[in-house]
Amino acid sequence: MKLNAKLWQNVAKNYAKLLEEEETCDVSITVGSGDNVKTFNVHSLILRTQTPYFHTALSAQWRKKKGDKLCLSKPNVTPAIFEDILKYMYSSELKLEGKDVQHLLGLLSASDELILPVLSEHVQRYFALHQSSWIKEHPLEALNSAFQHESWKELQNCCVSTICTNPWMLFETPHFYHLDETILLSIIEKDELQMEESDIWYHILTWGIMQHTDLPDDLNDYTEEDFNKLKKTLSKFLPVIRFFNMSLEDFDTKVSPYRKIFPDELYEDILWHFLKPDRPKKYVSSILPKRHHPYANGNFFKTNYAKITAYRASLSKYATRPNGFKRVMIGP
């Protein structure tokens, strides 16, 4: 195996030299925009072989010719990123050390557009291993970036897993309420979300309320239409919040005031669960398990109280709540 790897390294070096031999190139690709533009002379045979994108772009139906070269333009890809992609396609070499977050995200976007799935997976793994601190410092930006492409599963899982381990880094940020429903749902569904169920309900309820600027400040002033708006907004969240794992006191003080947003059978199932847990459920086929978080263990909280308190305090400067936050009337 080592011998094969060494042989391939020699072959790859020879292919890389082709990038310097412009006299054999038959394609001219101009990338970038504004003052950041560069033209690369490359070989159609290599590009066609590496990705179906160029197989189509250089076909007779789509190609444009100027002189003796085929011409393409990619203004949405920077020269630095395209240079990395060319090195990868010619020699399978890619040096990511020292590249900043924006370069890595740009490389991922270009890999997706140019249909280079192996390159995309490699960059995602590198990002997950070497940019974990950036994800923690910019959780909203990290999530929005990871979920902009459906194929970035590894990066999405990394971001969600990081946030599940310490969800306060996300839920206490001032722009949490702008988070997309699909992204938020992917976090709430996780068994590993390390947050008490009543806290999860509090933040999801607030997120739902903040999607409607016209809701009254006082819950007593809600009309049927207001409750229906909130019910529709939170309809996908209610089945995945573990109400069955809440205490009766939490449910009574924090959830029951919003009874009207619940499907009747779900609310009935929850109430009966507190009275008779073994009673067959109507709305749910099975009860979701308790989340796998250390707060379920009282000893964890005792031994880590100072650390948890310090972390929450460090977030206080970011926890400026919108004015509408006072609408959440769910008990003390």
UniProtKB/TrEMBL annotation:
Domain BTB positions: 25-98
PROSITE patterns found in the cross-reference section: BTB (PS50097)
Domain of life: Eukaryota
Gene3D superfamilies named among the record's database cross-references: 1.25.40.420, Potassium Channel Kv1.1, Chain A (3.30.710.10)
Name of the protein in question: BTB domain-containing protein
